[in-house]
């Protein structure tokens, strides 16, 4: 596919981890507008994209604040970019025993994972409706499809994202907009590293044994490379999977 720098892919949580890998992958197809909290990391990302011949810019902000979505749309307009793709990737996950789970942490998880996704989607939809074209990838998780002990807040927020994606898919299908919830299992990421560290601490496992236990949740006995998630997002954004609209794209190796 030939890169079209007049079109832009907005990616939230793009400064590091899976989001950064997604940004580098999508820069092969479109311009990239990266959103995150750390300016140094966003600037470094955009410089890497430009050195590779791509086009990129960034917005520093908290996705939980609707003003960040507004600022992102203003930046796209200033760069004369058409928003073709939105990848809502920003998210946080912190676990704990439900009966003692901190109320402010519960609110924070929903503010970032759910509210932030909605603010950005709401900001992008008018232009997509007008053009009758657009792709929205909402990064959920297998935690959005099943329950998990000690992760009620994270699971509930990820279930909410699947429901949001399904509802948006129904509402905007007639406008040529495709909305897909992407649900990976354990991915090579900081979040998975924290899960492994938790197993080491609470189950008295070695780091190697803890990592092997996480890998065994995938029938292929591996933790998913972030590049595979990025490739799945790129495929959705290519417009090649229109019939997937509203259906979770599950990346688990068969589990």
Concise summary:
By secondary structure, the protein is α/β, with parallel strands linked by helices.
Written account of the structure:
The chain has helices at residues 17-26, 39-51, 66-78, 103-131, 152-172, 190-203, 207-215, 226-237; strands at residues 4-12, 30-36, 56-60, 82-88, 134-139, 177-184, 249-251. With 255 residues, the chain is an alpha/beta fold. It has two domains: 4-185 and 225-249, NAD(P)-binding Rossmann-like Domain (Rossmann fold, 3-Layer(aba) Sandwich), CATH 3.40.50; 187-223, no CATH class. A seven-stranded parallel β-sheet has the order 3-2-1-4-5-6-7, with helices on both faces. Helix 1 (17-26) links the parallel strand 1 (4-12) and strand 2 (30-36). The longest helix is centred in the middle third of the chain and has 29 residues, at 103-131. The chain is globular and about 55 Å long. The mean pLDDT is 95.
Compile the SSE list and pairings.
Blueprint lengths: L3 E9 L4 H10 L3 E7 L2 H13 L4 E5 L5 H13 L3 E7 L14 H29 L2 E6 L12 H21 L4 E8 L5 H14 L3 H9 L10 H12 L11 E3 L4
Parallel strand pairs: 1-2, 1-4, 2-3, 4-5, 5-6, 6-7
The residue fraction in helices comes out at 40-55%
Element-by-element helix/strand order: EHEHEHEHEHEHHHE
Spatial order of the strands forming the largest sheet: 3-2-1-4-5-6-7
Poorly predicted regions are none
Question: What is Rg?
Answer: 18 Å
Task: Please name the CATH architecture of the largest domain.
Answer: 3-Layer(aba) Sandwich
User: So what's the CATH class of the largest domain?
Assistant: Alpha Beta
> How many domains?
2
Q: What overall form do the CA principal axes indicate?
A: globular
Structural class, judged by helices and strands?
Answer: alpha/beta
- The number of E-state strands comes to 7
First and last CA, distance? 32 Å
Tell me what portion of residues adopts beta-strand conformation: 15-25%
CATH superfamily of the largest domain: NAD(P)-binding Rossmann-like Domain
Largest sheet entry: 7 strands, parallel
The count of helical stretches stands at 8
